Here is the input.
Amino acid sequence: MTLGNIVDGVIIGVSASIPLGPIGVLVVQRTLNKGHLSGFVSGLGAALSDTIYAIIAGFSLSFIVGFIESQLLWIQIFGVIILISLGLKIFNTNPAIQLRRQKRKTTSLLQDFFSTFALTIANPLAVFLFLAFFAGFRVVGSENTLIDNLLLIGGVMVGAASWWLILSSLVNMFRSKINLRRLFWINKIAGSTIIVLVVLAFSIWITKEYIL
Here is the structure.
């Protein structure tokens, strides 16, 4: 059962991370702009956030879920504002200026990690995603021991981290072919994509929750 929990956790972690939303676009953009390590570390920030929400879902921390449900609209609005601001910043980034700044100072990997963690943790809907995954896989129940649940959560972390390693590695393979002109347009496309995805996702959620 313990090995099965690890495997299930890995599958859930990968499945929850694969959809290329705003965070995925950000990881791609950072890999192209700053390098493989920056992209992967940024992905690890998202993986840690997903793991925290998996813990909340896996251990059925009802008081946290209840708080998220009661404040969901305001949390969503806060997350939307932050992500749109990020999209605008990327859209307006000049790659030539960015490269000169990187030569003058060392890029902070901790900043990459915690910025992505903060952006991902601002999306509380992730906890309900993991609740759905756990229910679908039937991996959480009263018969599970603490060790079973811990191994399941560990598998989620490994699965999520593995996806970000794969994505950043694949993008890094094409990094040498990207010149400043292409990077300029990649920033424009990445910034625009983040804004569009955020606005679209928020609009769909508002429609389902308050209109339909």
